[in-house]
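Honest question from a wet-lab person: if I give you the sequences of every part of a complex, can you actually get the arrangement of the whole thing, not just the pieces? Trying it with mine:
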Amino acid sequence: MVDPVVGAWVLEFLLRRPDVGDALAGELLLALPLPSPLPPRLSATLLLRRLAADLSRRSVSPRTLHSLHLLYLLQSSPSLAPAFTAVAVECTVSPLRLRPFSSSSGPDADADADAEFFDAVNRIWNCQVAELERSEAAGLVSCALREARKEMEAAVVDPALRTELAQRETKEAALVAVQVCLEEMEKEMGPTFLEAAADAIVRCDCETHRSLVVLSDKLRSFRSIRLEPVERGLEIGHPPSKIDRARSTVEDGKGIKLNDRNIEKGQMGTDQEQGYSVDKNTMSCELQEEFDHKSCDNNYSDTPQSGQMDPVPPDPKDLGKKHHDIPTDTFLHPDEKHIRCSNLDANTATNLDATTMQKPSLMNRNATAHTLEWDSIPTHYGKSPNMEKEMDYVSSMNSKSSSSLCETKEYVLRRRKRKWNSLEEETLRKAVARYGAGNWKLIKRCHPEIFERRTEVDLKDKDMLDDGVYTGNRKVV
DNA sequence: GTAGGGTTACCC
DNA sequence: GGGTAACCCTAC
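Yes, you can. This is the full assembly:
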């Protein structure tokens, strides 16, 4: 069994080799045992490879933007800010180039392109960039970025400016900026750990030997903190090794895709219903889900190609956080992440009480059930893996205490009823006017603080109520 | 993810 | 007890 720390060294070395293709890199990432979270240096290497892959395909996408942001958090470099600006502009402007040149295509195509542009302006400039300015990554916010933001916002109300932007060579500028950034950052990173070690051995450089020993000790102590519980967990359940899993995936003909999307809702649901959970100290499955959950999932749905490493673009709220420790799963395909999580789940589940395992799904409706309210709202009904931990029961029944009610399984949990305040109502009204009714997910995402305690369905319900579409539960015809 | 309709809690 | 706002479920 390869030591995870050694696995990280080997992977870093191989990823820097130009003759190791993306598909092979993907297999290596999956097959090699690695520390979790990944060491920053390896994370940076992965992100640089991701950027290189984008360049080779001449692709500039929101993922490129996210890679640059993550790189900044890992290793700030002066070349990152210009690249970030150029990529942000290209990601915003690119929908405009889809507008038809001939008028025969009709106004609908124009409107669609404009709508995509408006959405990009909001998502990238109003959310991501605005949040960057308040975050630890504020160094990415240059004068050029501010100027670009003003121009993009001006283009929202100026059709002529949109036409002019559509004709600009923003893609070429972004590719050049990323290329420059890539070259500079690779230069700054210097040789890989293994290369440095090899050099030291060849030159018998005593000082470097000492530093290698110190570094090695540090890495080992890091491993002992983060990985020992995982190793213990793996011993309990005897799951297939990562190499086995990688092999079976290849044999299944699925190939290995390395991207980062949310764990399939259904898959997680199955685990929750079975009462599986993952110890926070053992693995970052829950943290990963939180990381995923906070990610902007709209507009990043382009299918990744096999063998690419695709970190997910961040939620604007997350832009202010340091992601020096990027979980291993950040670079994994959802299928593989699920394999990893479910294996660990199964291991952890062996320690669970049988009664916990048999707990019925909270989503099962019982017509005779009484209702309890709880304070903490899951973002999606029944989806929170920590639902039981988060529950704050508020009994609405005077005859029974909360504790006695909790002991039965016949009670449906219900959120505490909260009246809409004027700020929420006003914000919703404005948001509907701006984005249109029906874009509840977008509206919630653009006002996360105000609608923190509201679900997308709540927004819809409130809007319909205010519009007089229905009164209470009676639809107005 | 959203729409439509059902259920529940709250207020008078 | 009735009206209604808020919440929930489920089909698409």
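Two things worth pointing out. Chain A has 22 helices and seven strands. Confidence is low (pLDDT under 50) at residues 218-325, 332-371, 373-410 of chain A.
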